TrEMBL record:
Residues 26-110 form the DUF7041 domain. Pfam families: DUF7041 (PF23055). This is DUF7041 domain-containing protein. InterPro entries: DUF7041 (IPR055469). PANTHER family: ENDONUCLEASE, RNA-DIRECTED DNA POLYMERASE.
């Protein structure tokens, strides 16, 4: 006959097997992205309906590589069996010791990032991962843009600069498309031989720079001419208005006598007739 203790142990073993089957094997620990790793394993716990701190702690501890376990060895050894939140304590300890501080993120951004064989958009996403987005961003947008541009191949920089201050994410997508259209050998050649001023690709870059400069000059000249034309048109309108009395509006509010006889008229209908006023104006101007 099976004792109650044996039944309890058998039930715990069966439950543990069910949890193991539901959770499956946890992914290897990600040293450089511990927050993301914890997000993934907690999703697995949720799918398996695992809520017990002790169960999550046991699975997490079993997935830690030796170097990470050594990093939090003091926390692991200090936990007592009756500890109510072993998993939460272990998680907090790992994140506190492995997550980069804001200054460390900036330092890594300044010194450790390279485009390599990646797409510009992949480099951009890594930068955003390090510094955050929106109000949580720890690096000024302009600094981030300059760091991004430093990693771009020389052959596409003039084109990217000519796009102005468009969103950095959009700029990275444009850089992707340009590099897709440029042969890989061309990019590597201009990257490794920037000192060869007479190479065809160096000449091409200079021509692109010249075209951008010319475009800027034409835009500036066009704006200047528009401004001058606007001033001239305003001047013409002012002169036209001042001379309208003697030319365009002679027959407006002029009495019959002055319409018929002009300045030889001997009679006038009075105040409403503008002819005499126009004559006075002409005399003053003369």
């Amino acid at each position: 006959m099976t004792s109650p203790i044996e039944l309890s142990q058998s039930s715990e073993i069966a439950e543990s097997q069910q949890v193991n089957a539901a959770v499956g094997s946890l992914p290897p620990f990600w040293n450089h992205k511990p927050e993301l790793w914890f997000a993934i394993i907690e999703a697995k716990f949720d799918l398996a309906n695992v809520t017990a701190e002790k169960t999550k702690y046991n699975h997490t501890l079993g997935a830690l590589p030796p170097e990470i376990a050594s990093e939090v060895a003091d926390i692991i050894t200090a936990l007592k069996p009756e500890e109510p939140q072993p998993y939460s304590k272990l998680r907090r300890g790992i994140l506190a010791r492995l997550t980069l501080t804001e200054s460390q993120k900036v330092q890594q951004l300044l010194s450790g990032l390279e485009l390599g064989s990646r797409k510009p958009s992949q480099l951009y996403r890594q930068m955003i991962t390090l510094v955050g987005e929106g109000s949580n961003k720890s690096v000024n947008e302009q600094v981030l843009r300059e760091l991004f541009m430093q990693q771009m191949p020389q052959i596409i920089k003039p084109v990217l600069i000519s796009l102005g201050d468009i969103n950095l994410g959009k700029l990275a997508e444009v850089a992707d498309k340009i590099l897709e259209a440029v042969p890989t050998t061309a990019v590597s050649t201009i990257t490794t031989r920037q000192d060869d001023a007479n190479s065809p690709l160096s000449i091409l870059v200079k021509k692109m720079d010249e075209l951008i400069r010319l475009q800027q000059e034409l835009t500036s000249d066009y704006s200047r001419r528009r401004h001058e034309n606007r001033k001239y048109n305003n001047y013409k309108r002012t002169r036209s208005a001042s001379r309208s009395i003697t030319k365009g509006d002679q027959n407006v509010n002029v009495c019959w006598y002055h319409v018929k006889f002009g300045d030889k008229a001997r009679k006038c209908h009075g105040l409403d007739c503008q002819f005499s006023k126009n004559a006075d104006s002409r005399q003053e101007l003369g």
